[in-house]
Every structure is written in structure tokens, then in C-alpha cells.
Amino acid sequence: MAGERGRRPGNPQTREPILAAAIASFVSRGYPGTTIRGVAREAAVDPALVMHFFGSKDGLFDAAIKKSLPVALLVEAMEGDEEHLAERLVTRYLELWEDPSHGPALAAVLHAAAATPAAADLLKELMRKDLLTPLAGRLSRDHPEVRGLFAASQMIGVAMMRYILKVEPLASMPAPLVAATVTPVIQRYLTGELSLEEITGAATALL
Predict the structure, then answer these.
(1) Nearest Cα to Cα of residue 74 among 145, 148, 177, 165
(2) Which span out of 5-9, 26-30, 46-50 was modeled with the highest average pLDDT?
(3) Whose C-alpha in 41, 52, 58, 96 is 20 to 30 A from the C-alpha of 156?
């Protein structure tokens, strides 16, 4: 209950410890295993305070992924010429997955999106707004949104096979080798010629 000894009062500074506890829980327990009460217990606050700041478990997850995902670092890698855009993106993407401070959070988000429709919707909206839209804005070829979607689907597929399912030999390949193999495909999606069938299929997926 609110006011118990050891519980934090409801001030704005309390939000960050709650969010930190939520991120840790989503990473270690996944979306289904994370609860408002569990997060409140770890943050030493009343569950009502978690609801006050975030409204619901979905609201808490939304805030957690925005806080924990290195979106800004991916957007930063988009800066520069189009000719080497895929190389920068893929290299940065794999570096983040290999990083012990970012990799577990990325894995937790993918796990959650695969297991829970609500989590998938939140991740889809984040990707569309904060990653795909900036990427499309840097492309000079036709159908930039569709090109960005193809690139994202390829990169997420690599992450799923390498880091989530750990399919060999992909899981054990050196990251630079993976990057060198995937980069030409991503670059074609971003700046190369795309067939009408590819455009039609991707446009349908966007609806």
C-alpha cells in the first residue's frame, strides 16, 4: 500500500526507477512474465504509482522500449551518402546486437513482439515513426517507404535467426562476415532496381 515504509513517494523522480525496473523485468522475464505488481515491488513503490505514471502494462512496455532501444544510434548511422548507407546501417545494427548493454533489450523486444499482439503493435508503431520514416526521408529513389520496409525486414530476419533462434552456422559467424554478406542485399533494397512484384507485395504489407 502507498505510504508503506521503504516505498518511494509519488514524485517525478520516481518514474525513472520504475522504468529501470520495468526494463530489467522485460529483459529477464519477457512481456508475459512482467507484471505491474512485480515492477512496483522491484522499484519499491505502490502498484498504483506505476499505473499513475504509465497507465497500463502496455504503456509501461511502450515507455520501456522507447527508453531502452538505441533508436538514436541507428538514425545516426543513416547520415551520409546513399552509396554506403547499407554498410553503415548493417554495421551499426550488428554492433548494437553484439553490445551487452543493448543486445538483451533488443532480444526482449523481439521476443515480446513475437509472443504478444499488443507488444507487436507498439513495436510496429515505434519502427514506423522513429526508424522507417527517417530512413525513407534519406532515400532519393522511388518508393522510399517500401524500400525501407524491405531493408528492415531483412535486418530483423538476420537478428531473429542469429540472436534469437541462434541457427548455426549464422549464430557463430563473425559479425563482420555477416555484415559483408548482408550489406549488398540491403543496399539493393535501398538504392537499386526493384521489380514490380516486389513493390506490389511490400505495398500490400503496408496496408
Answers:
(1) 148
(2) 46-50
(3) 58
